[in-house]
Design goal:
Oligomer: single chain
Shape: globular
Strand order of the largest sheet: 1-2-5-4-3
Largest sheet: 5 strands, antiparallel
Radius of gyration: 25 Å
Distance between the termini: 62 Å
Helix content: 25-40%
Length: about 130
């Protein structure tokens, strides 16, 4: 019995030491310390359903066009762009894009934007965070 107690005590002591050596609970990041990236934060604030990928560095929109039965909300897209502090110049570029113009690109503050527009299929926009 003594041998079992001594073995159990040694195992528990080593388990405690192992936790200290690999990092205690105090040094582990807590869920409350998580800070979302700027794309995720804008998406959450705007309640946008558009998908994030590449570890939060890519955000895509496919808005509803005249012939689409579903798609992202154009209001959600503009909300996110506003939260990302889109410049007036890029806003003007996007708003003046015609279907005949094909794929367009622009950038501001570490955000690269690539989009197409057609009234039938809406806006297809990809944003990449380069910061």
């Amino acid at each position: 019995m003594r041998k079992t107690v001594a073995t159990l005590t040694a195992v528990l002591a080593l388990a405690g030491c192992g936790a200290g050596a690999s990092g205690s609970a105090e040094s582990s990041p807590s869920p409350s310390s998580y800070v979302p990236g700027r794309f995720e934060a804008a998406k959450i604030t705007c309640r946008a359903a558009s998908p994030l990928s590449d570890g939060g560095k890519t955000l895509t929109f496919d808005t509803k066009g005249e012939e689409d039965t579903s798609g992202d909300s154009i209001d959600d897209m503009w909300c996110v762009l506003t939260k990302l502090k889109i410049t007036t110049a890029v806003t003007s570029h996007m708003e003046s894009t015609r279907a005949l113009d094909g794929q367009q690109t622009d950038e501001w503050d570490g955000v690269k934007a690539r989009w197409t527009y057609h009234p039938d299929s809406g806006v297809r926009l990809t944003l990449v965070d380069t910061k």
